[in-house]
Amino acid sequence: MTTAARPGFNPGIPPVKNMQGPPTPLSVLGPQAEAERQRIRQQFEAGTSARETLRALCELADRNVQRVFGELLHVHESTPQGLALLALGGYGRQMLFPYSDLDILFLFGSEKAEQESRRLIAEFSRTLWDLGFRVSSAGRTLEECKRIEEDNAEFHLALLDRRFLAGDAALYDKLDTKLLPASEKQARGFLLAELHRLTKERLTRYGNTIFHLEPNVKESPGGMRDYQATVWLRQIVEEKKESRKITAAEEELSAAAVDFLGAIRCFLHYKNGRNDNTLTYELQAAAAERALGVGDGLARTPAEWMRLYFRQARTLNRQLLRYLEQKAPVPLTLRQRLFHAARAAKLEADHGKYCMEREGLLEVLDPPALADRAITFSLFGEAARTGTPLSREAERSIGYILTHPELRARNTEMSWATLREILGSDFPGVALRPMQRLGLLTETLPEFGMIDSLVVRDFYHRYTVDEHTLRTIEHLQELADPPDARGAHFAPLWKTVDRRDLLILSLLLHDVGKGMPIENHVTGSLTALGSAARRLKLSPEEEAEVRFLIEHHLDMSATIQRRDIFDPATVSVFAESVGTQERLQRLCLLTYADIHSVNPEALTPWKAEMLWQLFVATSNHFSRTLDRDRLHAPDEVPMLERVKALAGEATLEEIERFLEGFPRRYLAVHSAAEIAAHFALYQKLGAEPVQTELIVTRHAFSLTLLTADRPALFATISGVLAGWGMNIIKADAFANAAGVVLDTFHFADLHRTLELNPGEIERFRKSLADVVNGKAALEPLLKGREKASRARTPKVAVETRITFDDSSSAHSTLMEIVTQDHPGLLYEIGSALARLGCNIEVALIDTEGQKAIDVFYLTAQGKKLSPQKQELLREVLQGTLS
Amino acid sequence: MMKLEAIIQPSRFESVKDALREIGIEGMTVTEVRGHGRQKGHTEVYRGREYTVDLLPKMKLEMVLPDALVSRVVDTILKTAKTGKIGDGKIFLSRVEEAIRIRNEERGENAL
After folding, report:
1. Which listed site, A31, A275, A690, A748, has its alpha carbon 20 to 30 Å from A599?
2. Four-way CATH pick for B2-111: 3.20.20.100, 3.30.70.120, 3.20.20.70, 3.90.1720.10
3. Would the CB atoms of A851 and B42 count as touching at under 8 Å?
4. CA-to-CA distance for A668 and A582, rounded, in angstroms?
5. Which range marks the domain in which residue A482 is found?
C-alpha cells in the first residue's frame, strides 16, 4: 500500500539526504525559515495556487526537518542506524497548510535504539519548535507498528499516509514494504469500521450537512476531511468492482474541489494567523472580493461565491458518502438485516421491475429505464412512501441520465398529482433531499432555485436557506417516531394532519422570498407561490391554503413570544385569524418545523411547550365556540357569487336560504365547488327527501347526506355505516336555519366491500336512503356485524372520558367524549342521545389511532341540557361504552 | 455595582428589551425559565388528556449595573413589564463585589 499515486495533490518531493557538517545556529536557520514562509505567503496572495503553496510549505518543512536531524546526528556523533523519521497525516501526504502541525513518527529498529535516541529526539523537537514548526510527534518500534492499537485508530489511519523523511532508509523500507502491508491487510475490517465510525461521528457533529452558514472547511461535511476519508477508504478497500470505480470526470471534479478548498484553507490560515478553518461571514466577503479559488479574478458577492463553495463541497461530500455506503460497507448486524428484509417486503411488486431494496436502500435494477422520467418519479414516490432512501449508486444513475440529453428522456414534467403524492407521503424528505441534490426539485419547482445554497447572514440561523427548508420537512417526518420529548406532543398532529401535501408545499416555498431582492421575504415567497400554483395547476382552494400558511408562517412564533397565550382574548384573536382546526394543525406543525430547523438548539423545550399550549388553547376555542358564529348568508357576498357562478340557474336568494344559519365552520371547510354541489343536492330534496353523494378519496370514502332534520338521524346514518362494516374516521353534522341537516362522514371501508365490488356502491346508497326514510329496518344490518367487531382486542386501551361544558355555547351544552374507537361506536352514542331526547345541533367526530374524540353540541327541547340530564347521559354512555 | 434579576412575562420581553436599549442598556443575559409565585397554573384538556400547566413560562433577565443606573433600569422594567395582572413577575437586586472582563482583565465598573 502506498500513498504516492493519490489524486489531487502529488507534488512528488524527493527526500533530502542527511547532511553532514557543523551545526547551523538557530539565529541563522530561524530567520531563513521565516523569510521563506513569508515568500510563500506573498506568492499565494499574488495568485499562486494552493497546490503550489502546499508543495512549497512541505518542501520548506522537509528541508528543515532533514537539516536539523542531520546536524543533530553530527553533533551527537551518532548514526541514523535504527532510527527513521516518517511524515504522517497531512504532512505525510504532502498537504501541509500554513499553520498545520508536522506529524512526525520516530521509528525505532529496537527498544535499545529508542533508549539511545531520546536526547536527540527531545533536542530535535525543541529545535524545530524554535524554528516555528509545530511538531506533533510519536515514537514506535518496528514491533509496535505491527500491533493494532484498538483505541487509537487515528494513528493507524495517519500511518496510511506515511512518507520517509530522514534516517535509516532500510528500516523504513522494512516497515513500508513488509510489515505494514501484512498488518494492514489483517486489520482491514478494524480500520474500515473505525473509519466509518469516526466519519459518521464527525458528520453528525456538523448536522450531516454541508450547508452551514459559516462552515469549517476542514471538518464540516464537504470539507477537506471528507476528501481524506474518501482517499483512506479507497486505500483500505482495493477496488475490485470495476463498475463502481470512480470515473475520470468524477476524478477531475474531485481534484478541482480539492484545489478550491485547499485555497480557502490556506487563505483562512493566513488571515487568522493560526490553524483556524472556520469560513466566517467576514472572511467569506474577503474571499469573494478576491475571487479566491475561482481563477478569473472577477469579484463576486459573498452569496455568489458561497454557492461556488457549496458546489465544490457537495462534490467531496457526495463522493465520500458514496464510498461509505457502497465501496466499503461495514457488515450489517443480524438485527439490521432483519429490519431491512422486513422493509423490503413492503415494496410493491410492480416496482420490482425497476428497483429493489438492498440493505435498507433503493437500488435501480434497470438504469436505462430511468430515461422515462415517470419511472424516476415513481422511485422518489416509493422512497417517500416507504422511507427507504435511494442508494448513492441509484442517484448516480439518475444523475447520469439527467446530464446526457442524447438519452432522450421522456415524460419529463412532474404533474401536481405526482408531486402531491410525494409531498403527502409519510416520508417526503426522503425523496426531496435527493431530488434537490440531483436538481430535480428545482426543475419541478424552479422557485426553489432562488434559495439554492443561499447564505443569509444572521446570528440565529445555522444553515443555508435551502438546507433549513429541507430540514423543516425532515423534522416533520421524524415525528412518526419522535427522537426526543420536544416532538412528543406534535407527533399525533403529524399523523392525523389533513392535506399534508399542502403543508409540505408551504414549507418548500415559505422562505423562497429570501432569495429575492426585496425587504419582506414573505411577499417574495407569495409571489413565488403564484407562479408555482399556475404552473402546477393548483386549485384556487389549494393555492389559498398554501398562501395562508406562507403568509402566516411566523404568526404562531410571534404570538408565543409577544402575547400572553394564557389570556383568552389572545387565543380568540389568534383563532379568528386561523379560522379552522385543520388549518391550525397545519400551521402548528409548520411552526414547530420552522423553529426546529433554525439551529439544533432553537426549539427549546420551553418554546415547544409554549407552542403546544397555544395550539391546545386555540383548538379548544374552536370546538367550544362552533355554534356561536352562525352564517348570515346575505353578508357573504363574495362566497355567494362564487357559488352562484357554479350553481347554474339558481338565484342568489335560493343559495342564501340554503346557507342561512349554518355554523361558520361550514364555509371554512368547504370550497365553493363543494358548496355548489351541496346546493345542487339541496335543490333535489323536493323530489327525493334523502340526498347522498359518495366520493372516493385517497385513503377513504367521503359521504355527504342532506335531508330534513328528524329524531335520531345521526344515529341512524352511523348505524347504516356500521352495518355495512364501515369505520367512521371523521364526521361533521351541521344544520341550517331551515332545519336542513348536512352531514359529512369520512369512513374507511374495513372489508373493502365497496372497493372490490363497485356495483355495491349503488346498493349501499339505496340502503342508506331506505333506512333514513324508514322504508327499511336498521337492526338486520347491524346483526352479526357487532359480534365480529367486538371480538377484536384493541391494541391500545383508551379510558372513556365524558365531559360537559355549559359555558362555551349560548344555546347548547357541549359534550366531549374520548373513548376507545370501534366500528359502530357513533351509532351507540347517537342511539343513546336519541333515546334520552337529546338533539345534536353540531357534531365534530375525529379519531386518532384507536382513540375516538367526539364533540357534540346538544339541546333538549331547544334548551341546554339540565344538570340531571347530563348526569343521566353520562351514566348511560359510560355503561354503553365501557 | 448591583446585580439585577428580573422575572417577567414572555410577552413583555421584547418591549422591556427595547426600552432598556433606549436608555443605553445593551448587555444582558436572558434565560427561558418556568415557575410560579402567587399566580398558580391551570389545567387544560385536549382530546381527553389533561395538561397541567403548574409552572408557567417566564423570562429571566440578568444584568450587572453601575450603581448610578440601577434606579433608572428598575423604573424602566417596572413601566414596561407591568400589565397589572397576577404573574407580571419580580425584580431582585443584590450587591456585586467585583466584575472582571476576561479579554483585557479590566475590573470594576469599567468591565461592565
Report:
1. A275
2. 3.30.70.120
3. no
4. 10
5. 450-624
Residues 6+ apart with CB under 8 A from B60: B5, B6, B7, B30, B31, B32, B33
Q: What is the pLDDT of residues B26-42, one digit of tens each?
A: 889 999 998 877 766 67
Min Cα separation B47/chain A (Å): 6
Contact predicate A631/A639, CB 8 Å: no
ipTM tops the 0.90 cut: no
A77: domain CATH number is 3.30.460.10
Kind and range of the H or E run holding A872? helix A867-881
Q: Which residue type, as a one-letter code, is found at position A853?
A: I
Q: What is the pTM (predicted TM-score) of this model?
A: 0.75
Q: How many CB atoms lie within 10 A of CB A286?
A: 15
Q: Give the residue carrying C-alpha cell 547532511.
A: A19
Q: How many domains, in total, are found in chain A?
A: 6
Classify residue A2: in a domain, yes or no. Answer: no
Nearest residue to B31 (alpha-carbon basis) of B11, B54, B7, B15: B7
User: Which grid coordinates belong to A553?
Assistant: 408562517
Chain A residues closer than 8 Å to B49 by CB: 818
The pLDDT score that the predictor gives to residue A349 is: 43
pLDDT tens by residue, A53-84: 999 999 999 999 999 998 888 887 777 888 99
A597 and A638 in a single domain? The answer is no
B46/A564 touch (CB, cutoff 8 Å), yes or no: no
A60 and A179 inside one domain = yes
Residue with cell 422575572: B7
A737 shares a domain with A830: yes
> Domain locations in chain B?
2-111
Q: What is the DSSP string of A736-761?
A: -TT-EEEEEEEEEETT-HHHH-TTHH
CB within 8 Å: B10 and A816: no
